[in-house]
Amino acid sequence: MIETMNWGTIGSVRPFPVFQPEKEVSDLQAALEQKDVSTLVRILTDRSNSQRLCLAETYRSVNHQDLSVRLKTVLNGDLEVLILDLMMTPEQFEAQRLRRAMEGLGTDEETLLEILCLRSAEQLSNLAAVYTKEYQRDLENDLTSETSGDFRQLLLALLKKKQVAENVDLDVKLLCNELNNSKPDITPWIQVLTMRDPDHIRSVLTHLEAERGQPVTAEIEKHFGGHFNRDVRLGLQVLVLSIEDPYLYLAQRIQPMKDSQKMQGVLVSHCEEDLLAVRVAFKKNTGKSLYSTIQDTFKGDIQQIFLALCRYED
């Protein structure tokens, strides 16, 4: 069986308990020949990523064909895109999200921030390697060319996260002094938020909030106001939120429910990692379960796949 990196243990999608690759490949082949989309969706959404990759490997061995290529002949539109996303390794999918966020007109800053803020230094190093392998491009160079100024400085610091030991009180004082300056300076924020371990940063943020009397995100909103600082302000706020409570951050990111691509990105990325915790945060924040919200928002095959990845009603 093909092994992939395990990025978490509180995911909604778990390995299928009675996994029989040869039999399931036979079922997939029959479904492909009959263009039985419902069977394809049922099998591929009810298996873990490593099991799907095993099916692809077994399919190639038995039929001498690429399973993803065959799926393209039967599926189309958003359904095709989503199923093919599920056939990737987690690293390939995140690399694809980064690439799509930067290609074409405009840059999807929020997707870049989501991935770079939530992933560890080791995960980002692996992602950068996969990005180069898949696209023959350098991730750091692409981030540099697609962004500018302080926002570029922030993204590159996130890509190269470090952990430098420091005193909490000194870091709190450093950020307080910066907030008292009339001219905003992102450098101390980068120093503290990207060069310390998460527990240290959470302690700094707690002390800073107590010192200032309001949430750190509100301080950032006020201090880094103005049109030209929009990306920097957004970047710092996302970084703070993702450190304070990553599950609540993800729940709030998908809460508007207006963007199926955003929902798809979060569900595919986190269904085997920590989606159970995101579901809890979503219900606590909105008063309604993620499962029911998906039912009310999306229709057709996309709805069924989203529900399969979400898994259950809370």
UniProtKB/TrEMBL annotation:
SUPFAM superfamilies: Annexin (SSF47874)
Entry keyword Repeat: yes
Domain of life according to the entry: Eukaryota
Protein name, UniProt field: Annexin
Species name: Hemibagrus wyckioides
Family, per entry: Belongs to the annexin family.
Written domain comment of the UniProt record: A pair of annexin repeats may form one binding site for calcium and phospholipid.
InterPro entries: Annexin, Annexin_repeat, Annexin_repeat_CS, Annexin_sf
Swiss-Prot/TrEMBL keywords: Annexin, Calcium, Calcium/phospholipid-binding, Repeat
Keyword Repeat attached: yes
GO cellular component entries: cytoplasm; nucleus; plasma membrane; vesicle membrane
GO terms for MF: calcium ion binding; calcium-dependent phospholipid binding; phosphatidylserine binding
